[in-house]
Write a structure and sequence with these properties.
mainly alpha, Na+/H+ antiporter like fold, 18 helices, disordered C terminus
Length: 432
C-alpha cells in the first residue's frame, strides 16, 4: 500500500512527541531538556538507518511552521509584560535590551565580517543579528535554581523574553540588504524600514482593538469562558498573517500587538494566554525537531576553522563584553555581570531567523550562514547545558554572601513570565 509522505511525516513526528511525553519527567531528572531531546529525535528519524522520513532545508512548510511559531512566541511573551512592574524595575533589563543587544549585534557583525569577508558585509551583519537573541528556556536548571538570586533570574528572563522581538527588525533589514543589489543605493532598505513601521502600526491597532472587543464581549456575556483562550490565539495569528498579507512585517506586528494587548488586558485575566502559550510550546518543540532534521547535518558538513572561531566568540566575547559595558555602573557585582554575560543560550529565535536567512540568501552566503548559525546553536546547547548547574551552585553560594541591599537581591515583583518560567512551573519533573 502506498502512503502519502505527509502522513508518514505526521506519524513519525507525532510518535516522537508521544515518546518524549512518556519519558519527559525522567529526562528532566537527567537534565535532558525538551529541545535537546527533539534535536536528537530529529536527527535519528531523518538520517542513517533509522531515517524514516526526509525533509528539505528549503521546505516552505517547515519555514511556515517556524515563522508561525516565532510569531506566537513573540505575541505570548510580549503579552505577559507587566508595564507597571517594569517601570519600577526596568533599569537593568533596559540596559541589556537597549544597549547590550545592539552592541552584541554590532560585535557579531564585526567578527563575522573579519572571518567571512568574502560573503559580503550584509551577510556578516545578518549572521551577527541572527545569533544575538537569547533563549532562557534552554537553561532550565538555572531558571529554577533558587540558589541563584530571584532578581538575577528575573533579569535573564526579561531579556530572553523580549530580545528576539527587538532583534527582528535588525535581522529583516540585514537580510534585505543581503538579497538584493538595490540595497547599495538604499532603495530596498527604505522599503524594509517602511515594512517594519507598518507592521508596528498594524500590531498596535490589532492588539488594542482585539483587547477592546474581547473585553466588550466578555462583559456582555457574548463569549464563552472556554472560547476566550482560543480567541487570543486567533488574535495572535491574525496580527501576524494580516501584517504579512499587507506587505509589512508579521513578526513586528505580532510582538507589538502582544504588547498592546497585554497593556490593555494584563491585569484582568492572564489565564486567557495559556492556550496560546501551550500551542507555542508545542510548535517550538517541532522547530527543534526541524533543526535536528534539516539544519544540523548540512550545517556541520562544511565546517572550517572560521566557523569554530565565530561560534566560540559569539558565545563568549561577542555576548559578554556588550553585557559588561551595558551593566557598567548598575551596581551589580562583577561576578553577577559575568554570570549574566555567560548565560546567553541561543535557541528558538536563532533557529527561525537562521531558516529565514538561509532560504532567502543565494547558495554561497546561505552555506556560510548555515554553518556559523548551526555550530553556534550546537555549542550553546552543549556548553550552557553542561555549565548551568555547576555555575548556578558556585554563583549562588557567592551571591548569598552579598549584602541584602545589593540589586542582586531586589525584591520587586517580576515584570514578565517568559517561556522558561512558565514551562518550568508546569514541568512534569516537578509533579508527584
Amino acid at each position: 500500500m502506498n502512503h502519502d509522505l505527509g502522513l508518514v511525516a505526521l506519524a513519525v513526528i507525532s510518535g516522537c512527541v508521544l515518546l518524549w511525553g512518556l519519558v519527559s519527567a525522567r529526562l528532566e531528572r537527567w537534565d535532558v531538556s525538551a529541545p535537546i531531546a527533539f534535536v536528537v529525535l530529529g536527527v535519528l528519524v531523518t538520517h542513517g538507518p533509522t531515517g524514516f522520513v526526509h525533509f528539505s532545508l528549503h521546505s516552505s512548510t517547515i519555514r511556515a511552521l517556524a515563522e508561525v511559531t516565532l510569531a506566537l512566541v513573540l505575541f505570548a511573551d510580549a503579552s505577559r509584560v507587566n508595564l507597571r512592574a517594569l517601570r519600577v524595575d526596568a533599569a537593568i533589563p533596559a540596559r541589556l535590551l537597549g544597549i547590550g543587544l545592539p552592541l552584541t549585534i554590532a560585535a557579531g557583525f564585526a567578527v563575522a565580517a573579519l572571518l567571512f569577508h568574502s560573503a559580503g558585509l550584509w551577510v556578516a551583519a545578518t549572521v551577527g543579528a541572527v545569533v544575538a537573541p537569547t533563549d532562557a528556556a534552554l537553561g532550565a536548571s538555572i531558571m529554577q535554581d533558587e540558589r541563584v538570586p530571584a532578581n538575577v533570574r528575573r533579569i535573564l528572563n526579561v531579556e530572553s523574553g523580549l530580545n528576539d522581538g527587538i532583534a527582528t527588525p535588525f535581522v529583516n533589514l540585514f537580510i534585505a540588504g543581503a538579497v538584493t543589489a538595490e540595497a547599495v543605493s538604499g532603495t530596498h532598505l527604505t522599503s524594509a524600514i517602511i515594512e517594519l513601521v507598518g507592521g508596528a502600526a498594524l500590531g498596535v491597532g490589532i492588539g488594542v482593538v482585539g483587547a477592546i472587543l474581547l473585553r466588550f464581549s466578555r462583559d456582555h456575556g457574548w463569549i464563552a469562558d472556554g472560547v476566550r483562550p482560543l480567541a487570543v490565539l486567533a488574535l495572535a495569528l491574525f496580527a501576524y498573517a494580516t501584517a504579512d498579507v499587507a506587505g509589512t512585517n508579521g513578526f513586528i506586528a505580532a510582538f507589538v500587538g502582544g504588547m498592546a494587548f497585554g497593556t490593555m488586558e494584563h491585569h484582568r485575566d492572564e489565564s486567557v494566554l495559556q492556550f496560546t502559550e501551550q500551542t507555542g510550546t508545542l510548535l517550538s518543540l517541532l522547530v527543534w525537531f526541524a533543526f535536528g532534521a534539516i539544519m544540523l547535518v548540512p550545517g556541520l558538513e562544511h565546517l572550517d576553522w572560521r566557523d569554530v572561531v565565530f561560534a566560540v566568540l559569539a558565545l563568549t566575547v561577542v555576548r559578554m563584553v556588550p553585557v559588561a559595558l551595558s551593566l557598567a555602573g548598575s551596581g551589580l557585582d562583577r561576578a553577577t555581570i559575568a554570570f549574566i554575560g555567560w548565560f546567553g543560550p541561543r535557541g528558538l529565535a536563532t533557529i527561525v531567523f537562521g531558516l529565514i536567512a538561509v532560504d532567502a540568501l543565494a547558495s554561497t552566503p546561505a552555506k556560510v550562514t548555515l554553518a556559523a548559525v548551526t555550530l553556534t546553536i550546537v555549542l550553546s546547547v552543549l556548553l550552557h547545558g553542561v555549565s548551568a548547574s555547576p555555575l548556578a551552585t558556585r554563583y549562588g553560594a557567592y551571591a548569598s554572601r552579598l549584602q541584602r541591599s545589593r540589586p542582586e537581591h531586589n525584591d520587586v515583583a517580576p515584570p514578565i513570565a517568559t517561556r522558561a518560567v512558565r514551562t518550568l512551573k508546569a514541568s512534569p519533573a516537578d509533579s508527584p
